[in-house]
Design a protein that fits this description.
The complex is a heterodimer. Chain A is α/β, with parallel strands linked by helices. Helices cover 36% and strands 29% of the residues of chain A. In chain A, helix 3 crosses helix 4 and helix 5 packs parallel to helix 6. Chain A is globular and about 50 Å long. In chain B, helix 1 packs across helix 14, helix 2 packs antiparallel against helix 12 and helix 12 packs parallel to helix 16. Chain B is elongated, with a radius of gyration of 30 Å. The chains are: A alpha/beta, B alpha+beta.
Chain lengths: 228, 410
């Protein structure tokens, strides 16, 4: 069963009352478990909109989105919140760690929402940080960390609860070349070793080169779906 | 500590200066309310204080005729038996008085006075001046030749301890009555009119002077709770019947009741004004604090926070601000009102004398505050609820924002 299935999805935004802008125009897509997939396309092609719809952060104008076979259409806000918590991991372009929490506390955040006992979540996060080479960062707060370090902690936060899919919106956009390369390599390693499914948007050729599958969006439509 | 409260605590210190200003505004507002109500209470005093100053009761019992004419013969017969019939609430203080008007003379002159024949053991509980003996001593219960007079009267007539004075009255039988008394003590009264025109003798001495036998004119009752005056008076009226006049202080001294209303009204209006300012201040800073973190709340929604968990976080932040600022305002307010209740803050005595009397109500010139833990806690509870309530609005607004929209916020 596909982790993500998008069926004939459109999304329009009303602007200045009457004028509407179509961000997505009938997108069909499915993501299988363990894929390392990039969504590519120029600015305004609908990459972030598609990720928002897959991530249950927004609702399509028409069409349907399924996560693990469950249609998001008609789910209550509470059910959507629980689905995001349990099945989806997010990595944002601007890292978006909670600045008053330490790196470890940020990574524990979703586990805490899942009511995982404190000792258990501490142990899981410690093991994860050790695996990702972040062991020395555990007690650091985001303002004291570099962009690359923050984004690696953001990845740790996204995978700590072992979601069905991790959605990353241009995760390397704010990083320099070296940090960006290191981050994508880390994500790819997690994909290969742990089978974590990644779907990320990017227009960075270096990142695209690492992806196993590249879906190209142009003007809100899938223009190409390339598998390596 | 609960993770939500810990996160909220850290959040409020992101902008240390803003949080401190916000807390100061709430704490200062509460401090002002406590201090202001303490000041008003200290100047006017409560009804019991007021009545103590002038020797009135929350309830007074006499014959209906005496209330109107104050005739010497208009007496309550066998007052001890009458008193035994009254089932008064615990904590009530009672004074039984013989009251007459007469002329007090000394070798230096004479002056019209009000003579109170009292039980020296009971009277200080219902009349503060009766216990505030500045020179000499209180009357002995069986002293039928002693008298205690006010300090201003003593000065005016140049009378000292041990001097003899003469009182002349109209007796119950209509004849003139007179007797000599030796000054045993000089009392001080806050109210100048009492200090210069009231004299105290024992009940026995007054009964003999007026020729009324074992009788009295007035039973004065002070209750533990001023609010009990009306219901207790109503019950006593029903028990005693038409032959007795049972009046509350509100009927005898309407201005005191009006002043109570004014005092409460002024405090309420002032408190509402401060509450409004505090509320608007908190709303402003909470809105600012919440909406500048819109994107962060969007991230939290994306990570799986439910809308009510977002509300709980914002309210938890308001809880911390309320807790710290209310604690500070309460401690400060209680400290200042306690100090003000122990020491005079300002004294306008040189301008107004020791006190001013307005329609029978006494206003002291020495500015003191009333210390009231209950009032402080009440005001604190209101500010606390207000602060938490005001935090709900921005919390509700931000929790209803769709996550994608919140994430787009710059």
């Amino acid at each position: 069963m596909s982790v993500v299935r998008v069926e004939n999805v459109t999304k329009s935004y009303a602007e200045r009352g009457a004028v509407t802008t179509a961000a997505l125009r009938g997108v069909d897509l499915s993501v299988e478990p363990g894929e390392f997939m990039a969504i590519a396309g120029p600015s305004g092609s609908g990459k972030t909109t598609l990720l928002n719809l897959i991530g249950a952060l927004d609702a399509p104008t028409s069409g349907e989105v399924f996560i693990d076979g469950t249609s998001l259409c008609g789910l209550s806000p509470l059910a959507l919140a629980d689905l995001r918590r349990d099945r989806i991991g997010f990595v944002f372009q601007a890292y978006n760690l909670i600045p008053v929490l330490s790196a470890a506390e940020n990574a524990e955040y979703v586990l805490q929402l899942q009511r995982v006992p404190r000792a258990q979540r501490r142990a899981r996060v410690a093991a994860l940080f050790a695996k990702l080479g972040l062991a020395t960062m555990m007690d650091k707060r985001p303002p004291k960390m570099s962009g690359g370090e923050q984004q690696r902690v953001a990845v740790a936060r996204a995978i700590a609860a072992e979601p069905a899919v991790v959605l990353a919106d241009e995760p390397t956009a704010n990083l320099d070349q070296a940090a960006g390369r290191a981050l994508v390599e880390m994500m790819h390693e997690l994909n290969r070793e742990r089978g974590v499914t990644f779907v990320f948007s990017t227009h960075d050729p270096m990142v695209l080169a690492q992806a196993d599958r590249v879906v190209r969006l142009v003007d809100g439509k899938v223009a190409a779906d390339e598998r390596k | 500590m609960d993770a939500l409260l810990l996160l909220a605590w850290r959040n409020i210190w992101r902008h240390r200066r803003r949080t401190l200003i916000n807390m100061s505004a709430v704490g200062l507002g509460l401090f002002l309310i406590i201090t202001y109500s303490g000041l008003i209470g200290g100047v006017l005093g409560d009804a019991k204080n007021q009545l103590d100053n002038i020797g009135m009761g929350h309830i007074e019992i006499s014959t209906p005729a005496w209330r109107l004419k104050h005739g010497a013969g208009m007496v309550l017969a066998a007052p001890a038996a009458l008193l035994a019939r009254l089932a008064l609430p615990p904590g009530a203080e009672v004074g039984v008085r013989v009251v007459a008007r007469g002329l007090l003379t000394s070798p230096r002159g004479g002056v019209g006075v009000t003579i109170h024949g009292i039980d020296p053991a009971r009277e200080p509980a219902v009349a503060r001046y009766a216990g505030d003996i500045r020179e000499g001593a209180q009357l002995a219960p069986d002293d039928v030749h002693g008298i205690v007079i006010g300090d201003e009267l003593a000065t005016r007539l140049r009378v000292r301890l041990g001097h003899k004075v003469r009182i002349m009255v109209q007796r119950a039988d209509g004849e003139m009555g007179a007797a000599l008394y030796r000054v045993r003590g000089i009392f001080h009264a806050v109210v100048p009119a009492i200090a210069r025109s009231r004299v105290l003798v024992t009940t026995a001495a007054a009964e003999e002077l007026l020729g009324i036998g074992d009788a009295a004119h007035q039973i004065v009752i002070q209750l533990g709770r001023v609010d009990d005056a009306e219901p207790v008076a109503a019950r006593l009226r029903a028990e005693l019947g038409a032959g007795y006049d049972v009046a509350t202080y509100g009927q005898l001294l309407p201005v005191l009741k009006a002043l109570e209303g004014l005092q409460n009204g002024v405090v309420v209006v002032m408190a509402l004004f401060v509450y409004l300012l505090v509320g608007l201040g908190i709303l402003n800073t909470t809105l600012m604090s919440v909406f500048e973190r819109t994107r962060e709340f969007g991230v939290m929604r994306a990570l799986g926070n439910r809308p009510r968990q977002i509300v709980a976080l914002v309210v938890a932040e308001a809880f911390w601000i309320a807790s710290v600022s209310v604690a500070a305002g309460l401690v400060l307010g209680l400290a200042v009102t306690w100090i003000g209740s122990e020491h005079t803050l300002l004294d306008f005595g040189q301008i107004f004398g020791e006190s001013m009397q307005i329609g029978g109500a006494v206003i002291r010139s020495a500015l003191r505050t009333e210390y009231s833990l209950t009032n402080g806690l009440k005001a604190s509870a209101i500010v606390y609820v207000l602060t938490l309530g005001v935090g709900l609005y921005p919390a509700w607004r931000i929790s209803r924002l769709p996550p994608a929209e919140a994430l787009r916020a710059s």
